[in-house]
Design brief:
By secondary structure, this protein is mostly helical. It is built from four helices and no strands. It has two domains: about 80 residues; about 35 residues, no CATH class.
Length: about 130
């Protein structure tokens, strides 16, 4: 496997550091998979409970808010799971640490803090200003 990119001021990735990142990402995949399963079950139970006979507008509104909250949790967990799985693929393919916008190094310190990121600080900041 080729050496992963780092910024000029950073030391190269060591095998131990890469193993640590890989382990953290794998644990995160497991955690998010469980969270997604739990949230999907909760959401399915809310939908299955349906609207009971005689629900007033307040009950209906509370049920709708509950479903929307559970749907948000499911969608967030799914998105984080996909990002984490993608980080593992990038790590295996040698693309880990390469900014998807400018193809420069993301930075080892940034990846150690946020192992799922795919953009360097400059490209992320530029995207947020838009």
């Amino acid at each position: 496997m080729r050496e992963l990119p780092v910024k000029e001021s950073e030391d190269a990735w060591t095998p131990a550091e890469l193993d640590e990142v890989r382990g953290e990402l794998a644990l995160e995949v497991d955690r998010l998979t469980r969270q997604l399963d739990d949230a999907t079950s909760s959401f399915s139970a809310l939908v299955a409970s349906g609207e009971g006979a005689g629900d007033d507008q307040v009950d209906h509104g509370a049920a709708t808010a509950g479903r929307e909250h559970e749907m948000t949790i499911v969608n967030n967990a799914r998105e984080l799971l996909e990002q984490t799985q993608r980080a593992l693929v990038r790590l295996s393919s040698g693309a880990y640490g390469v900014c998807e916008t400018c193809s420069g190094p993301i930075g080892k310190a940034r990846l150690q803090a946020f192992p799922r990121v795919t953009l360097c600080v400059s490209c992320k900041a530029r995207g947020e200003r838009r």
